[in-house]
């Protein structure tokens, strides 16, 4: 198939691009910057505000895989531009060019739009997809980890030093990027079992992980037994204000993210699982976390 792809230079998008080409698909990918030639990949320079670039991709592809998104921004306008307006622009290009299929990588955050600006933006993006009239499927992954990931890298670095501050309460699911990519590729053709459906996919741990359990699992991957400190929401909010004051627009911990981290339930719903005949997770998280730690070391990231 010819796959249109946004976010192809990012963590999930890059993994999807590589696996798609390995499987014999052709990828037409959006990029802000010029990219090196890669067999099986056609790069189209532009962004989610560039209607001409989006229409060029939509005109050539059999299915659009919308992976690009903003996960951290200094204000709600950043989420609005990247997650809502960007998704609308892509949908309009697909409608205009008659793209047969649309697969959207959303987030569990869309379940709780009231929680933060990020959550609200993902929920509104999903509404646009559902109202588009396209042949769509939505995937809501939980925390994604694996090679090239920078979001969970700080956890591994903390484990290396033997001290891991984590939210005090709550549980969350995990998924390895390779398992997520397998699901996305399985959804390419569409069909009655997946069209018009929203899926939540994790590592198969139906109860998810407490933050303490996750910290110890990352510690195990690093060969350490870190001291885990449970932080209250109030403490995380104080740290967020400090981070924003010091790093301004480059802050990693904002009040928006603090609210997201402290939500008690980021566990995927078994009722929203993809059909077992289509996809099941293959990578056990402790094994995947260990392999990820090894990759970080090989790359000198730790």
Quickly list its features.
302 residues, alpha/beta, 41% helix, 14 strands, Rossmann fold, globular, seven-stranded parallel beta sheet, 10 helices, three-stranded mixed beta sheet
Question: Can you offer a commentary on this structure?
Answer:
By secondary structure, this protein is α/β, with parallel strands linked by helices. The chain has a domain at 2-146 and 173-203 and 268-282: 3-Layer(aba) Sandwich (Rossmann fold), CATH 3.40.50.720. Helices cover 41% and strands 19% of the residues. The chain contains 10 helices and 14 strands. It has helices spanning 11-22, 51-60, 76-97, 117-130, 153-161, 177-186, 211-221, 233-247, 255-261, 285-299, and strands at 2-6, 26-31, 41-45, 63-66, 101-105, 135-140, 143-145, 163-167, 171-172, 174-176, 197-200, 209-210, 227-231, 265-266. The strands form 4 sheets. A 7-stranded parallel β-sheet has the order 3-2-1-4-5-6-11, with helices on both faces. Strands 12-9-14 form a 3-stranded mixed β-sheet. Strands 7-10 form a two-stranded parallel ribbon. β4, α3 and β5 (101-105) form a beta-alpha-beta unit. α7 crosses α10 and α8 (233-247) packs antiparallel against α9 (255-261). The radius of gyration is 19 Å and the shape is globular.
Q: Which CATH architecture of the domain at 2-146 and 173-203 and 268-282 would you pick?
A: 3-Layer(aba) Sandwich
Give the neighbour order of strands across the main sheet: 3-2-1-4-5-6-11
The percentage of residues in β strands lies in 15-25%
CATH superfamily of the domain at 2-146 and 173-203 and 268-282: NAD(P)-binding Rossmann-like Domain
Number of helices: 10
Question: Helices and strands, in N-to-C order?
Answer: EHEEHEHEHEEHEEEHEEHEHHEH
Structural class: alpha/beta
Query: Which fold name fills CATH's third level, the topology of the domain at 2-146 and 173-203 and 268-282?
Result: Rossmann fold
Total strand count, please? Answer: 14
- Average the pLDDT over all residues and give the rounded result: 94
Supply the CATH class of the domain at 2-146 and 173-203 and 268-282: Alpha Beta
Identify the quaternary structure here: single chain
Cα separation of the termini: 38 Å
Which regions have little confidence, pLDDT < 50, spanning 5+ residues?
none
**What would you report as the Rg, rounded to the nearest angstrom?**
19 Å
Query: Helix coverage percent of residues?
Result: 40-55%
Report the principal-axis shape: globular
The biggest sheet, with number of strands, parallel, antiparallel or mixed sense and barrel status, is: 7 strands, parallel
């Amino acid at each position: 198939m010819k796959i249109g792809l946004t976010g192809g230079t990012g963590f999930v998008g890059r993994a999807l691009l590589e696996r798609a080409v390995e499987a014999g698909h052709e990828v037409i990918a959006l990029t802000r910057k010029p990219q090196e030639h890669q067999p099986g990949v056609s790069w189209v320079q532009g962004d989610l505000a560039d209607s001409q670039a989006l229409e060029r991709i939509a005109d050539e592809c059999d299915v659009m895989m919308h992976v690009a998104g903003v996960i951290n921004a200094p204000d709600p306008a950043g989420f609005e531009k990247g997650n809502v307006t960007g998704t609308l622009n892509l949908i309009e290009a697909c409608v205009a060019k008659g793209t047969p299929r649309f697969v959207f990588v959303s987030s569990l955050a869309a379940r709780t739009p009231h929680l933060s600006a990020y959550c609200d933006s993902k929920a509104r993006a999903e509404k646009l997809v559902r109202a588009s009239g396209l042949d769509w499927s939505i995937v809501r992954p939980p925390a994604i980890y694996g090679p090239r990931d920078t979001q969970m890298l700080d956890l591994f670095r903390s484990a290396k030093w033997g001290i891991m501050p984590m939210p005090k309460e709550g549980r969350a699911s995990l998924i390895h990027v390779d398992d997520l990519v397998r699901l996305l590729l399985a959804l390419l053709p569409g069909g009655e079992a997946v069209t018009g459906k929203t899926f939540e996919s994790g590592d198969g741990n139906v109860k998810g992980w407490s933050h303490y359990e996750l910290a110890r699992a990352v510690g195990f991957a690093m060969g350490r037994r870190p001291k885990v400190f449970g932080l209250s929401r109030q403490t995380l909010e104080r740290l967020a204000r400090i981070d924003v004051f010091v790093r301004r627009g480059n802050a990693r911990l904002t009040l928006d993210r603090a609210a997201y981290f402290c939500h008690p339930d980021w566990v995927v719903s078994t009722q929203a699982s993809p059909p077992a005949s289509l996809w099941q997770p293959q990578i056990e998280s402790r094994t995947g976390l260990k392999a990820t730690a090894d990759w970080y070391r090989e790359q000198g990231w730790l």
